[in-house]
Amino acid sequence: MKDYLGAGSLAVRAFTINCLLAAAICFAAPISAQAQIVPGVGSGPLVPGAEAASTAEEDLPVMSRPRPDFDPIGIPVSSFLLFPQLALDGSYDTNVLRTATNDQSDYFFTIAPSFRMTSQWNRHMLEFYGGLSDYQYLKITQEDLADWNFGADGRYDITGGSSIFGNASIAELHELLSSPNTVGNQKSPNRYFDNHGEIDGTVQPSRLGFSAGGVFDRDVYLNTPIIGGGLINNTDRDFDDYQGYVKTFYDFSPGYSGFLRATYESRDFDQYLDRTGVHRGSTGYRADGGVDLQITHLISGEVYLGYLKYDFTAPLVDDSGIDYGVKLDWLATPLVTVHLFGGRTLSQVILAGASIQDNKQIGLSADYELLRNVIIQGHAIYVQSSYPGITRHDTAPDLGVGVKYLLNRHFSFDATYDYTDRTSSVPGAGFGDSTVMVGINLRE
Prior knowledge:
Number of helices: 4
Strand content: over 45%
CATH topology: Porin
Number of strands: 21
Radius of gyration: 23 Å
Largest sheet: 18 strands, antiparallel, barrel
CATH architecture: Beta Barrel
Shape: globular
Number of domains: 1
């Protein structure tokens, strides 16, 4: 099975040229067809409740404002709109292998065609999406790879404010070389397939509402090449992740809702014992309370706080503590939108003695509309990672700045700079890295 799946990445790369040709055909669609587009589509999602607060463009976040001269209008396909896109980027990375010493720099190029096709119905919703990202390095060619994904989601609207939402997707992805799961003698990043599915049902006959749902992920890891020949067998990393949740919420006023949510999660591995001789399966729960809010039109988003606890099989130790999440948008001025975001996530690791990677993140970003078609963006993120069962601790601040230039509705240019400096209590696990990228986006 793994040999067959590994061949899939080669097939994806072989189809890159075909994807470029398909994108070119989409961009060459007749103008007469564009005249059939539903007005207003493609302006981006509005902040929840913003319509009730204000309809002025300056009262919307910078990146959500309609820009009729620059927004893609899509291609009509029956009762759907197709939005194709092609990103072509060139980058320079000062530390490709994310090593503490003997940094190796290189240029690399990214070809990333993608699409989104969305229904234009008055009720219900159906959407298909997909894309690939092909990375090609100039010197360190063992890092060449192609990620891809394809999926669909939909919503069935029921009378009385009730609905059912579903999503299914499949993707071939890779772990970053900065992952704690990267070992020193591997030749290229760890790769895996993620099969994802979820369903959610919501009932809201009045201000009081209820929702329940489930999420399933099946991750299958490919064998990783070793420098000098051979493979790392990653069969012990294949696992199924099941999540189920219930949520009750109450709308106090338009744009302001309080909620309580309980989530149960179980991770089951195909192989009972991993390479270190322990069983990594776990069960856990999260209990959170929070608010979806809009304080006038200036501040909107979600904030929650709660508790989490995950149980592991001895000798691995349990993990517990405060659970939190924040995602807030603040319209500081008509030209500046500030975003506050953060949360706590748990990621699987193969480190001997460690139960899991426990990440706590907080970040701040901003969008500044210098001109109608020129947007300056910046971010500052701080991530602290601990590994219950061992003494390792990592901190990784990340700083970045970029500019987006919208030439017209079909072309835009991007330039970004990103800096990361990870420190670790484990010698040799830290690194510093800077990446500069310039690119062009073609869309319809």
